[in-house]
Amino acid sequence: MIDLQGKTAVVFGLANKRSIAWGIAQKLNEAGARIAICYQNDRLKRDAESLSAELRDAKTFQCDVSVDSEIDATFAALKETYGTLDILVHSVAFAPADAMKNDFLETRRDDFRIALDVSAYSLIAVARAAAPLMPAGGSIVTLTHYGADKVFPNYNVMGVAKAALESAVRYLAMSLGSRGIRVNAVSAGAIKTLAARGIGDLQKMLDASEARSALHHNVDTLEVGNAAAFLLSPLASGITGEIMFVDGGFNITGM
Fold this sequence. Notes:
Layout: E1 8-12, H1 20-30, E2 34-39, H2 42-52, E3 59-62, H3 68-82, E4 87-90, H4 97-101, H5 109-130, E5 138-144, H6 157-177, E6 181-188, H7 202-212, H8 221-232, E7 243-246
Parallel strand pairs: 1-2, 1-4, 2-3, 4-5, 5-6, 6-7
């Protein structure tokens, strides 16, 4: 049984009830952790506050992870509120629409920069801010996708961003290991989230995943949440720098 009683977890990337971040937050809360939910902007504030009310002892904080000053202000507020942190969840990704729908060859420099900044660099930025608040060690989990390894139609620059993110997981695991902070990623299967709507022909991806995966069903946010809760718990104390697939076995198939 996963026991996170007395632990404090900050979760970045909650947009609505379909968010993977929400599935993780629910599972962490079920295990006993108190949750700090971070949402991007005023447009997402109402959903974040509404969902946080469903959790025990949860609070919300606004933070755009592409703005260093907002990260600094958020972690100052987290320190004032909680003192220390034990868990950080990074469930953040974004690429401009043109970079997702156009041929990959046509990716523009600015679109590439934005995708890598928001989807990959932001993990480094929030990990750096969180580390001083984890004096007794801690655990960090981010979300990735098999498109980091293989080409998926219309995934385009996001696949490159996820590849950078996975590399960052390994480098951060080495950088933070001496402080007792573990860093891992969950590679989630296709899920119809708000972010995933930006992928052209998403339904084809969902259908292919269901047909080809070993379990013949698409995973949901709570299944991803279970895996993340494990990685973030003491049960995974010997695991860092790893990518855990939660995709029903889709990644093991060839045809």
